[in-house]
Structures are given as C-alpha cells and as structure tokens.
Design goal:
With 418 residues, the protein is α/β, with parallel strands linked by helices. The chain has a domain of 122 residues. It is 23% helix and 26% strand. It is built from 13 helices and 17 strands. β15, α12 and β16 form a beta-alpha-beta unit. The longest helix has 12 residues. The radius of gyration is 28 Å and the shape is elongated. 31% of the residues are buried.
Amino acid sequence: MAAEEEIVDRMSDLPDKLLCHILSFLPFHTLLRMRTVSTRFRYLWRSVPALDLRDNEYRPHAFKKIMDHVVKNHENLAMVKRFRLLCFDCSYGEPVICRWVDLLTSLSRSNLEVFRIHLSRQIVRNLPPSQYHLDLSRMNITCQKLKTIWLSGKIVIEEIPINVRVFFPCLKTFRLKGVSIVGGNTLNKLLSGSPLLEIFKVEDCFIDSDRDRFANFNLPEVTIKMLYLEYLVKPSGIHDVDGDSNHVLSPGSASIQVTHQSKVALDFLKSIRNMVKDLVIDNIDNVSFENIDDNGAIVWQNLTHLVVKLNDSPSHALPFLVGRAPNLVSLVLEKGIMWDNMRFVLPSVSYSKLETVKIIVSGGFEEMEIVEYFLKNASVLKKLILCYGSISEEMKATIVDEHRASGCEPFRITLVES
C-alpha cells in the first residue's frame, strides 16, 4: 500500500505581508469569519490594507458596532489602500458616517488609492433626512495617491471655494451617481485638478447653489442625467507648456435638465463647453443669460450633435448654443403643444457644417420662420425632418418649394405626421 502523501500547509508558510495582500481582496465580513481558522488569523485582519464594508452583510444594528471596532483597532489606517463603504441602512446619521470617513481620509501620509462610498437614498419613517456632506478640497490635501473616487447615493459634494486649488495628481477614475453637488464650478475644479484623469462619469446627479435645498426635497437647479468624459494619453513627445499633464480630452456627451433660472446652470454650461461633442439639454430657457458676453468668447468648439428641448417662453437660448457651435453637424429642436407661442431669437450666422436639422412639434406646425432660417443659413444641409401633430397641404407645398442655400445633392425634406 502506497504511503500517504504528506499534507503541506503552504498558506501558513507565507509571510504576514503577503498574506494580508491576498486577504485584502476579500469582503470584510469574510475576514471576520476567518478569525476562527487559527490563532494566527485571529488578529491578522488588523493589518489588511483594504476595508470592504457593507452593512447588508450583517445583522440589523450590528454594523455600527463592527465599524467602530474596525476603525478603532486597525493597526495602521494610513496603510489602507482601498476603502469601500456601502450603507443601505439610513439610520446611522451623518455624524457617525463622518467619523468613519474622516478617520480614513484625514491621516497624514495616507496611502488610500480607491475611495468608494454609497449611501442609500431610502427614506425611513420617523427619522430625519440625513446626508453625508463631503469636502473634497480637504481630502486632496491628505489623499494624494487616490486613483479612483466613486460616490453614489445620499452624498452632498460641498462647493469648492474660488481661491482653493484642488489637485489629485494620481486620480484616473471619477464616478458620481445620484449625488448632489453645490456650485456650478465644482465639477470643473475637480476636472482641472486631475491631470491623469482617464474616465469621468456623472449620472443622475443634481447641482444647486443652496445646499439646504437637497435636504428639503426641493427641485435642484440643474439635473445631470448623464455626463461622460474620457481622457486619452497623448502621443509620446507631446507635452503641455506647464508640463503637468500627458492626457488629452476626447470630447464626450452630456444630457442635462435645467429646473430653475439661475447662474448655477450658466456656470455649469460654461465649464463643459469645450468638453462635449454630444449635448441634450432640457428647459434651456431657465438658464440666466444676463452675464453672457456679447463678443462671442463663449464658443462650443467641439459640439457636433445637439438636442434642445424648449419650453413655452421665448427662446433666448439658441444664440448661446446653436449660434456659437461652428462645428455643429446635426441639430434637433423639440417643442411641446404650445409651439404657437414660441418666437425664436435666431443668431445671424452661417452654418458651414450643419447637415441635418430635425424639428419636433407636438401640436400643429404653422411656423415657417425656423424652417426658412435653416434653409437659408445652412450651406451644406442635406436633410430636414419635420415631425408634427398636424400640417396643412399648403404649408407642405411651401416648405418643399422654399429656397435653400445648400447645393448638396441629394437633398431631402421629410414630413412625419405623429
């Protein structure tokens, strides 16, 4: 009978540093269970350089005690490289969450590389609404090694003062979902202070000038349905004058809705004017245009595809968007049932690259001014699409026979009755 092979415990032969690195890829509740494996594993979790904590992995009301125990007994929080906190229970309150996060982010010489927080937006009966207010301008002082920031849920990103410079020298990924942002220039500050950024994604987020508006369940001034930007590494040998960035922006896409007339919306639009090539904007007439300069300095240089959803007030938005987008290729104007009350303020410009114009009207189409305008000023127009509720035969004939500046062939006018 063959001799039994000797069982070798290779895991126990590993040095603590390597073993902690392996354990860092496990959820924290798994680490706690491993304490019963051996006496060596009982306290090894205190040296693991990652904290992945989710309250739905624990019994109700037990997570707070466990979290307090972790931040109190970890041997060296400054050595933690990855921190993930997912809270689906809304009963902790902001002071408790602030204490946990501050212990991780306020340490000098922090090695934190991944910072991920999610706070559920679930409303709990008999509990006051709580939000975590995050000051990223403070975090950038201590967390210079951050590579990923991912925030979602009931988090308010505080406004960054004008005289404060934000600088994350290693940040590559920045994701926001469902969070609230104070100030129209806050996102631009974060972008300009991240020279190595590769991915910037904002989804279902809110911008307002008043931080109390979020807590009082009032409509924010701007809703960002989607903002996606991507930065690419420059070819070798190309450097900026200041030498602090080797990445170049690949213009992305944005979809936003403006709820209230305010300066915040204008500040935000100014900050992304060179960042997007595709833009969808709802209720643009709620943007305050009082501080727009008249010399044309605000230009949407990279904008090629634009969708504008107009409300019932006179549209003063088109000169700001359409008239200052020299590379615009396609344009969609969407208007509701009150189209008859709309009077466009149209810019006196020529469109040298505009190929497609689509106009969507819920009610009857009886306004020729906008059709005549694009036929006259779009020199390379190839397609005009009119979607309407009803239109007279006489109007159809007038549109088809209208003189156009474009000599492109084939040229097509499409009338779509909804």
